[in-house]
Write a structure and sequence with these properties.
Neuraminidase; mainly beta; 2 helices
Length: 312
């Protein structure tokens, strides 16, 4: 009964969030004016994360990435992939797609890199960089990472709001969350099984060889999930309306709050606020971080763009 009540509440919350209107802003706490030449210099000298981390705005893409939900670094060709909902996040309208943009300046390279989707959200790539996995409401879609062609669809029984994706490089398992039902699923050898159920799971990545760290969209806690025993441990505090989480390359993480905040988490998962754009109603959806370049990518959802920051 408690679970059923929560699902109704979350559905209502998602509908309310979708109805939110937005206005443009320059990200609070970030500075402008970095050049491509300076960026290349910084890329050759990767930053070291210390106690004080600052974000410096590098570029912002054109506002043509309709409902930009997630960003993934396509390291095999040094570009960025952006999942674009192009409609409502639960509507099966066939309008969703994945765009490819420049890593250097955010300019669009290929608007319709992958099509035939509904409301694509989280993305992850196989260890051999051949297959892109994308959540799409109630199915996981496998896409050719270089051509954008859909290879296979995996319907997920009972799924309502499939969200973030993490591909384990150790065994190619694909872990993905369902924010509405609470399930965390695993795709392994073409078979999907639920491994845990927590409150409103969203962002998901590896914490250790055996543990996953999972953000909650409910925001009051986060979770450590043991991939083997399936044991779940709650960690407080959480990230408010937690969205994306990515490793920082040094044992910590960057995490986003959908309403417009970006945090750094140390190895103990203690959060420190780095960026807050809520006053201008600019969202921070499913982020990406490239450690070797010290580059943090933030999709702005309703602003239909991606903003890049140098981490200093």
């Amino acid at each position: 009964m408690k679970t059923h009540t929560f699902i109704i509440t979350l559905s209502t919350l998602l509908a309310m969030l979708w109805g939110t209107s937005c206005q443009n802003q320059t990200a609070a706490g970030a500075e402008n004016g970095n050049t491509a030449e300076n960026a290349q210099t910084q890329a050759n000298n990767p930053m070291q994360l210390g106690d004080s981390i600052r974000l410096k705005k590098f570029w912002e893409s054109d506002p043509y990435l309709e409902t930009s939900e997630s960003v993934l670094y396509a390291y095999w060709d040094s570009t960025l992939l952006v999942s674009c909902i192009y409609g409502k996040p639960t509507e099966k309208d066939g309008n969703g797609l994945i765009s490819k943009i420049s890593l250097e300046n955010g300019q669009t390279i290929q608007e319709r890199f992958a099509i035939g989707l509904n409301a694509p959200k989280g993305m992850g790539v196989s260890p051999d960089a051949k297959t892109l996995y994308v959540t799409d409401i109630d199915r996981l879609v496998a896409i050719h990472a270089r051509s954008g062609t859909i290879l296979k669809e995996y319907p997920v029984k009972g799924a309502k709001f499939l969200n973030d994706v993490f591909v384990d490089p150790r065994d190619s398992s694909v872990y993905f969350s369902d924010t509405e039902t609470g399930y965390i699923h695993r795709l392994y050898q073409d078979e999907i099984t639920p491994i845990a159920q927590v409150k409103a799971p969203n962002g998901i990545t590896s914490y250790s060889d055996s543990l996953l760290v999972v953000l909650s969209f409910a925001g009051d806690e986060m979770f450590l999930v043991n991939k083997i025993s399936k044991e779940v441990r709650s960690i407080s505090p959480g990230i408010p309306d937690g969205d994306g989480i990515v490793p920082d390359g040094q044992g910590g993480f960057f995490a986003s709050a959908w309403s417009g905040q970006v945090y750094h988490l140390n190895h103990r998962l203690t959060p420190t606020l780095l960026l807050d754009t809520r006053d201008k109603e600019i969202n921070a959806a499913d982020i990406e971080y490239i450690p070797e370049q010290g580059l943090l990518l933030v999709p702005t959802f309703f602003k239909n763009s991606v903003t890049a920051y140098r981490v200093q």
